[in-house]
Design goal:
Distance between the termini: 18 Å
Oligomer: single chain
Number of strands: 11
Low-confidence stretches: 1-20
Radius of gyration: 24 Å
Length: 433
């Protein structure tokens, strides 16, 4: 965890001592499938410590978390509502070990035939082979071996059965009458239907709160990417009504085999994590005036202590790097721009205080004042404080973000809460709050 020298302050908007400006509290939530439960725990800790975000931003499952926070149907207990959502998702998990062997085997064979016939999941081997490989690779560490076997079973559960609360396989019989391409899978552009998440979210999100006229205390920012031109898409509740389409778009990750979403006529969107899994830039662009105190939830660690030991760990590390936080440049540029703006302020005040002596032409003075307003007054936001809450990976696994098993979800929520509590405790102990 890296943090600035300044503390997390507890009010919704605080005066920053050096400037007198109000600060926005910003919570940024990364994507990562089931790893999003970690962000739930982070938010629970913030609420318990009376730290209220003014802006919540996210992409993929981070966007869904953010939408529940901003549009919560339970204003008094948002953290509990968010946790209930995650516990409900875990109810949609199918425990392979609890299924009758004959039923499980038939389902498994049925799905494997589809994948092999049309080239999907080329790395998907028989579960027994995958488990045998794990036992061979980790024979010297029984605890790690058992954990990785459990992770592999959870992954196969998601691949074969989906999650009834979030996404379902397109090949299941109920789609036969409503899917015109059901019997021509060679034409498929997605394998899983993630529309079930919208039905689940009906119990958690009040979409009337996610519109410009709502005067909501929490601003929601979601990100996606245009499939056709690779340009970023930003959905801002202070600028447009956020609907179920935006929720589906921000979570439409193609490598999970989810479908793209047409958010507007001719605009087809995929998950924003394809461009950036940490939408800090979008927050700064959306709110360029007020200075910011930012908390970033990191689901994918930037740093590790040891090199990968086998190909699965290589793929896992490559995945982590692709989705890890890359906003350091944005933070550094914010500091550079702040120095430039201070210099502009100094020059401008010199001009204003010496207008008579300088004998500046009236038109030129008007241009100077207009530019000052644009550069300083309309784009003068600074990142005053930034905190990173990092999820640990004691037993990394390529498919950990597909593990929605109840115990895994509960453990992730607990870890997020504990990590954030530790950070806040250290800051409180320093006496800066």
């Amino acid at each position: 965890m890296n943090n600035s020298d300044s503390p997390i302050r507890k009010s919704n908007t605080d005066n920053y001592p050096s400037t007198g400006k109000t600060l926005e509290n910003v919570l940024i939530l990364q994507g990562g499938g089931s790893l999003g439960a970690f962000g739930c725990g982070v938010y629970k800790s913030l609420v318990k410590n009376s730290i209220d975000p003014n802006i919540v931003a996210g992409t993929s499952i981070g966007g869904i978390n953010a939408a529940i926070i901003a549009g919560s149907k339970n204003e008094e207990h948002i953290d509990q509502l968010l946790e209930n959502f995650w516990l409900e998702l875990s109810e949609g998990f199918v425990d392979i070990d609890s299924l009758p062997p004959f039923f499980a085997w038939n389902k498994y064979v049925e799905q494997i035939q589809i994948f092999s016939k049309y080239g999907y999941y080329p790395y998907l081997s028989a579960l027994s082979e995958a488990i045998a490989g794990i036992r061979e690779n980790y024979s010297s560490d029984r605890i790690q071996m058992e954990i990785k076997v459990k992770q592999m079973k959870s992954f196969y559960s998601s691949v074969i059965f989906g999650n009834s609360k979030m996404f379902t396989p397109r090949w299941t019989p109920e789609y036969a009458l409503e899917d015109p391409e059901y019997f021509t899978p060679q034409k498929w552009t997605f394998l899983y239907d993630h529309f079930p998440i919208i039905k689940t979210l009906e119990r958690y999100i009040n979409y009337d709160k996610l519109r410009p006229e709502a005067n909501s205390k929490v601003r929601l920012i979601l990100t996606a990417v245009n499939v056709l031109n690779a340009r970023p898409l930003t959905f801002d509740s202070y600028k447009e009504q956020i609907t179920t389409k935006h929720i589906l778009a921000t979570s439409a990750y193609p490598l999970y085999n989810f479908r793209w979403i047409e958010v507007k006529d001719g605009i087809f969107a995929w998950d924003g994590s394809l461009l950036s899994n940490t939408p800090l830039r979008e927050v700064i662009a959306a709110s360029p005036i007020r200075d910011k105190r930012i908390c970033i939830v990191e689901n994918y660690p930037k740093k590790i202590d040891d090199l990968p030991k086998n190909l699965f760990e290589v793929y896992h590390r490559a995945r982590d790097i692709m989705f890890s936080d890359k906003t350091e440049h944005n933070v550094q540029m914010s500091k550079v721009i702040s120095r430039y703006l201070d210099y502009i302020e100094e020059l401008y005040q010199t001009v204003e205080n010496n207008i008579d002596k300088l004998q500046i032409d009236e038109k030129q003075l008007k241009r100077i004042r207009q530019k000052y307003k644009i550069y300083k007054q309309e784009h003068g936001a600074e990142i005053k404080e930034i905190y990173y809450v990092k999820r640990e990976e004691p037993y990394p696994h390529m498919s950990e973000n597909a593990d929605f098993s109840p115990q895994t979800i509960k453990n992730a929520i607990k870890e997020g809460e504990e990590k954030t509590n530790e950070i806040i405790k250290k800051i409180n102990k320093s006496g800066k709050i």
